[in-house]
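pasting for ref
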Amino acid sequence: MAEPTNTPMPTAPPTPRSTSPAPPLPLIGAGSTSNPPSLSSSPTTSFAKPSLPTGGALGTKPVVLHIGDAIRYNPDAYSAFTTAFEVIRPSAAERSRDAFMAALRERRWGDFSAIFRPFWGTGGEMGQWDAELIALLPPSVRVFASAGAGFDWADVKLLGETGIIYCNAGLAASEAVADFAVALIISTFRMLPYLITSATSAATFSAAHDSATAQSHNLRSHVLGLVGLGNIGQQIAHRCRAGFGMEVAYYDVERKPADVEARLQTRYCESLEALVRGADCVVLCTPSGAGRLINKESLAWFRPGARFVNIARGTLVDEEALADALEEGRVSNIALDVHANEPEVNARLKAFAGTRALLTCHSAGGTVETHIGFEELSMRNITAVLSGGEAVTSVNLEWLRKS
């Protein structure tokens, strides 16, 4: 899932995954949660007004700092949100790092209780949420809710130790990312990059028509190896097992419960090496922070001619080693939505674009429905925490509890 485009890399310290599988989304303050609304529903979802504590110096309601663009998709929910809270949205000029830090020192926005960032492409003008920035937050801040599945631009460990719950919005993007991942997986089995580029002229059309068959395979009975079986990994597993008859294996830092494995008809591998050695296509769908999982050593475990897909983070891959594996033929085809030095794409990998590589622009989660969900889920997280409930998609409770 795309991280904020205006947030610099390299990334923050290693961060954990959010709870997986995620709980259903409650209508905060509405009583019954037996039929929670879908994140992909129409942008008119209503919020029941919760019971809230009084807030900071700017008024009697809790203050929420809204960083980034205005709400676009959930006007009714945002209307209820702004009724429950005093919402302040700093200007773009105030969000540059120096100006933002100066405003925090001045307590320009009072003792706000929450930070709300509903879009990944805006609201990150202040750059990395590191120790320098976090130290300036007022002690009243209790929750930071943001769009996006990734959170390597924020030191969520330090936020937790400071007493701030960080909530991502990966749940809202998981369906879109899983759909996109399936398209990338198919592309590696069916030589789609080669066939797409070859359709541009009669000569290449005929050549591809004659030669692509010998390089293409059905997905059925091939082994899909998932690195990570969180929300996105589980949806990929379901689609590929039920829809294409693939065998699905996974490796994760925590083995999933037996009922989850049974429901998905997937098997657990004790190590990354065991997974990779037995897979026909390896898919990275794990959070950032694990280091370079795909490197020279792990690429040597790939079956000759195996395939590789990445919809997680480019920093998890040694791209030079991956280019070596492509040149050597150990890896036959790749599909990458994420790259180590975005927006730049590795030059050696670009050389395979249109033949053995499908390279896209960190867009797996980029749909209207995802954006609707980002807005709504972020508001739900803030409302839940400030009304004394539990966050829907917190990622740093481990460090909050320790603090």
